[in-house]
Design brief:
The protein has 310 residues and is α/β, with parallel strands linked by helices. The chain has helices at 23-33, 52-62, 77-85, 107-114, 132-148, 165-171, 181-188, 211-224, 228-257, 265-297; strands at residues 9-16, 38-45, 66-71, 92-95, 120-125, 161-164, 192-197, 305-309. An 8-stranded mixed beta sheet has the order 7-5-6-4-1-2-3-8, with helices on both faces. Helix 5 (132-148) runs parallel beside helix 8.
């Protein structure tokens, strides 16, 4: 727990993607809501297609407590967040989106919960304002995280969270090209809490989450943070082998007892197709593991920086 006789420094990490219309107002609102704390802003532009880079650069030149980092290409939200965490200097880091769906006035509640001694505090929304598609995708990811990462069932993994400095220092040790921030947090600590907060409608534009991005996030969690999928396929292969052994015995007995019986070519083709599908699926899973391991060992970058201001 922090010594209340000193002012805590809070690092506000904002991954920016097409946020030119909202980012300056967001920073102003956070400063107003957290006027009692020393603040540091780290904005990471993930190759936005609008004027975000120009807006953020102007803000960085005008403010002493704001650092702007622009990436050379779109690496994804989790990579941008990791870049921000590598550049924070505060006692804790708060990660917040640039679209006002995470209310800036709720940051105080996250920080107050963190001051109770927790390592990480997640926001838990009263009512999510995402589309049905996004909500279903989030629910599926939540179930997957519970199974793969042994996440507590009552913990919702949201992008809006506060992280103690010591945990940040452990998280940024991960240098692989496929970071999953929540997975890294769950590797580091179990001292995690959550607070109920509002969830607003997106103020500008539409959600940047597509089916492709949701699948990519799920595969990242599935492949990079657990070997359970391999164990599932191992057990599946064992089960199929046992069933196949019984079927072989059955067909031998059938041939011995009923030598004139016709052979079931249709059932043979179905069996071949089924087992071929299982094999191809398993090979695909192995290929994903090997491919990501190859990129990691060859030091594919987690991000590359175009400019830092100041």
């Amino acid at each position: 727990m922090w010594d209340r006789s000193t002012t805590m420094k809070i690092s506000i990490c904002i991954p920016v993607y097409n946020g030119a219309a909202t980012i300056e107002r967001l920073v102003d609102t956070v400063e107003r809501e957290l006027s009692g704390y020393a603040l540091e802003f780290v904005l990471v532009n993930d190759a936005s297609r609008d004027d975000s880079e120009a807006v953020c650069e102007r803000m960085a030149l005008a403010r002493d407590n704001l650092r702007f980092i622009s990436l050379r290409k779109n690496f994804g939200e989790h990579n941008a967040v990791m870049c921000a965490l590598n550049h924070v200097t505060g006692d804790c880091a708060v990660i917040i989106d640039d679209d006002f769906q995470n209310p800036p006035e709720e940051i105080m509640r996250l920080v107050q919960e963190l001051e109770k001694g927790f390592d990480v505090v997640y926001s838990r929304f009263e009512e999510k304002q995402h589309s049905t598609f996004r909500n279903l995708g989030s629910k599926f990811n939540d179930l997957t995280a519970t199974w793969l990462l042994e996440k507590p069932k009552n913990l919702y993994l949201s992008s809006f969270k506060a992280i103690r400095r010591e945990v940040v220092d452990e998280i940024v040790k991960y240098q692989g090209p496929f970071p999953y921030v929540d997975g890294l947090i769950l590797r580091v600590t179990t001292s995690i809490s959550s607070v109920l907060v509002r969830h607003n409608d997106r103020e500008e534009g539409k959600s940047n989450y597509t089916l492709k991005k949701l699948i990519s996030l799920w595969l990242n969690m599935f492949i990079n943070f657990s070997i359970k999928p391999l164990r599932v396929f191992t057990m599946l292969g064992l089960g199929i082998s046992i069933i196949s052994g019984f079927l072989i015995i059955y067909f031998i007995l059938e041939k011995l007892l009923y030598p004139e019986s016709s052979q079931g070519w249709a059932s043979i083709m179905v069996a071949i197709t089924f087992f071929s599908g299982i094999q191809l699926m398993f090979l695909g899973l192995i290929s994903e593991y090997l491919g990501k391991h190859y990129l990691t060992t060859n030091k594919a970058p987690q991000w590359t920086i175009k400019k830092i201001v100041p």
